[in-house]
């Protein structure tokens, strides 16, 4: 095993890759049209027939799918295989209304894990490595994806999941982990805890880390690398498309190679939907060309980034995407969890007759996200006893926790004390400066 | 029988109490009694004033979160054991007190106690039967 998990694919010439994509796309469009009534209707409405798609150059003719479609079609509306052929469900972190669930056949799991294996090998992983996976396991794709990839590579896999940091470090030292997979903020936290416990990089055997599921900066990368004495690699993915491993970083650390034998990437103008030329900044759109159960065509990620085909020193020819530079919607990623202001609003709406004014303040303190929600106390939330106001605070906090899965500090403030900008309340203050 | 108490939400930051009391002063509102309950992040200022409805309006106009709570006030003898007697009466009648505060009158040898209880009627009844004087709203406001 060399520097690539699948050299033939990862270093394939542009012409061969296009041929492969063309074949797969044509078959996939047929599969989706025949099996997914929801998308068939969209194609019919746009006047596109499967035979109109003869290759990637025809991709732009297909209609876009958005997260709203996924919610509308929940749970089975975009399923392209009988449930009896499916073996797994994964889900995105909850939203105000319905969650988004993705289905996988065994084939889909295999290709997803294969993508993760490519990421692990690109980070220097071999069968001699000990891979500690501290992404959450469960409905979240982080843990299962990297776990599967690690198995494929043949690493000794430690399925730690997140939390219990001192135990993580104990295992890391006792079992000599060489590769760490988790969110970048958790990696930094592990690094800081290691130092707090009186150890340093020389006391562990880690050489590489594969970090994703939340935005992070170059500065943070250097800090993690220093804290843990490793090389830190970025990984990108989304549940709708499969999970982590849609794209991954190589040793050049200048963007993530997209596994384009499975996922075709486009950059579009988020306002017009027009496809933009290589090198333009725009919304990233993925078409899944090999998945069986949940094959999304032209799915809008809402992530803003740039694609480049410039030659990479690693030898891979797979197109590279930049780190996401922002979002086309108001979604925040806090401690790896997707947070929409509307979710906060739905919780507050239950507390009062009038939606209270609020402000989300996100910052990064010691490489970990802080999450505070300031809520203007209105008259029908007020009581003359401290007990009932503290009860209200607790209720907001626990409702937020149960919807988002992460805790927020709730601060009640006086009416009209949250600054307005041109009469409109500023809903989000993100001090993390991630872009 | 009951008296209107203003309960005002106050953030723990400098100048808030000063702003509230100055606002009331400028509007000719006289404070009869007050207490404050505080936590790490906020406090609730409770006030008995001469014109509660006017005070409520003024505070709301100035963006304070404020609510009216009905409380009862009694007069007790300003002497050792004066309060203890009233508390025993409430205890014997199973009235639990959410919070309370007291103030002394300017002339007579009497102290006044404001009670916030679950059921004002039960509490007032018990106290009245025990011989305590329940103050009317006018008596307090015009004091």
- Biggest sheet descriptor of chain A: 12 strands, mixed
Number of domains of chain B: 2
Mean pLDDT of chain B: 93
**CATH classification, class level of the largest domain in chain B:** Alpha Beta
Low-confidence stretches of chain B: none
Oligomer: heterodimer
CATH class assignment of the largest domain in chain A: Alpha Beta
Radius of gyration of chain A, rounded?
23 Å
Order of helices and strands of chain B: EHEEHEHEEHEH
The number of helices of chain B is: 5
Main sheet overview of chain B: 7 strands, antiparallel
Keywords:
heterodimer; A: 435 residues; Rossmann fold; GMP Synthetase, Chain A, domain 3; 2 domains; twelve-stranded mixed beta sheet; four-stranded mixed beta sheet; 31% helix; globular; B: 143 residues; VC0802-like
What's the quick description here?
With 435 residues, chain A is α/β, with parallel strands linked by helices. Chain A has 11 helices and 22 strands.
Report on the structure:
The complex is a heterodimer of chains A (435) and B (143). By secondary structure, chain A is of the alpha/beta class. Chain A folds into 2 domains: 7-329, Rossmann fold, CATH 3.40.50; 333-430, 2-Layer Sandwich (GMP Synthetase, Chain A, domain 3). In chain A, 31% of the residues lie in helices and 25% in strands. In chain A, strands 3, 4, 5, 6, 7, 8, 9, 10, 11, 12, 13 and 14 form a 12-stranded mixed beta sheet that branches. Chain A has a 4-stranded mixed beta sheet with strand order 19-18-17-22. Chain B is an alpha+beta fold and 143 residues long. Chain B folds into 2 domains: 2-69, VC0802-like (2-Layer Sandwich), CATH 3.30.2130; 70-141, VC0802-like (2-Layer Sandwich). In chain B, 33% of the residues lie in helices and 39% in strands. Chain B has 5 helices and 7 strands; from the N terminus they run E-H-E-E-H-E-H-E-E-H-E-H. In chain B, strands 1, 2, 3, 4, 5, 6 and 7 form a 7-stranded antiparallel beta sheet that branches. In chain B, a hairpin with a 3-residue loop joins strand 2 (31-38) and strand 3 (42-49). Chains A and B meet through helix 11 and strand 19 of A and strand 1, strand 3 and strand 4 of B.
């Amino acid at each position: 095993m060399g520097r690539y998990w699948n050299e033939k694919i990862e270093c394939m010439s542009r012409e061969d890759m296009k041929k492969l994509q063309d074949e797969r796309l044509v078959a996939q469009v047929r599969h989706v049209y025949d099996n997914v009534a929801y998308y068939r209707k969209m194609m019919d409405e746009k006047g596109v027939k499967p035979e109109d798609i003869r290759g990637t150059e025809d991709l732009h003719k297909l209609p876009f799918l958005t997260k709203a479609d996924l919610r509308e079609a929940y749970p089975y509306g975009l399923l392209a295989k009988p449930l009896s052929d499916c073996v797994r469900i994964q889900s995105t972190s909850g939203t105000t209304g319905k969650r988004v669930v993705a289905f996988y056949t065994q084939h889909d799991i295999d290709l997803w894990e294969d993508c993760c294996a490519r990421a692990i090998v690109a980070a220097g992983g071999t069968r001699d490595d000990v891979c500690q996976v501290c992404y959450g396991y469960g409905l979240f794709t982080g843990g299962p994806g990297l776990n599967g990839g690690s198995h494929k590579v043949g690493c000794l896999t430690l399925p730690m999941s997140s939390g219990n940091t001192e135990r993580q470090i104990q295992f890391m030292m006792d079992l000599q982990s060489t590769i760490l997979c988790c969110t970048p903020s958790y990696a930094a936290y592990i690094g800081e805890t290691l130092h707090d416990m009186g150890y340093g990089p020389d006391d562990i055997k880690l050489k590489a880390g594969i970090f994703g599921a939340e935005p992070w900066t170059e500065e943070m990368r250097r800090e993690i690398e220093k804290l843990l004495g490793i090389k830190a690699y970025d990984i990108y993915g989304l549940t709708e498309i499969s999970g982590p491993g849609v794209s991954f970083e190589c040793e050049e650390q200048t963007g993530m190679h997209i596994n384009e034998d499975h996922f075709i990437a486009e950059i579009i103008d988020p306002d017009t939907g027009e496809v933009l030329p290589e090198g333009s900044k725009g919304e990233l759109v993925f078409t899944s060309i090999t998945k069986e159960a949940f094959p999304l065509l032209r799915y809008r990620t809402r992530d803003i980034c740039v694609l480049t085909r410039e030659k990479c020193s690693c030898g891979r020819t797979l197109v590279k995407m930049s780190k996401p530079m922002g979002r086309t919607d108001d979604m925040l990623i806090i401690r790896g969890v997707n947070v929409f202001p509307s979710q906060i609003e739905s919780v507050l709406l239950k507390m009062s007759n009038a939606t209270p004014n609020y402000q989300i303040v996100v910052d990064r303190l010691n490489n970990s996200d802080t999450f505070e929600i300031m809520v203007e106390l209105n008259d029908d939330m007020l009581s003359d006893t401290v007990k009932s106001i503290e009860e209200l605070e607790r209720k907001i906090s626990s409702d937020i926790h149960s919807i988002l899965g992460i805790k927020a500090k709730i601060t009640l403030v006086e009416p009209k004390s949250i600054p307005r900008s041109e009469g409109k309340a500023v809903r989000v203050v993100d001090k993390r400066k991630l872009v | 029988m009951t008296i209107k108490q203003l309960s005002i939400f106050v953030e723990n930051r400098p100048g808030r109490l000063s702003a509230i009391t100055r606002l009331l002063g400028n509007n000719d509102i006289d404070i009869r009694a007050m207490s404050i309950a505080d936590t790490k992040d906020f406090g609730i200022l409770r006030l008995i004033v001469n014109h509660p409805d006017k005070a409520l309006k003024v505070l709301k106009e100035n963006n304070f979160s404020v609510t009216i709570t009905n409380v009862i006030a009694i007069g007790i003898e300003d002497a050792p054991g004066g309060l203890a007697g009233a508390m025993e009466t409430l205890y014997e009648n199973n009235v639990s007190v959410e919070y309370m505060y007291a103030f002394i009158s300017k002339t007579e040898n009497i102290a006044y106690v404001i009670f916030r209880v679950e059921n004002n009627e039960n509490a007032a009844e018990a106290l009245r039967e025990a011989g305590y004087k329940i103050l009317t709203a006018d008596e307090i406001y015009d004091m």
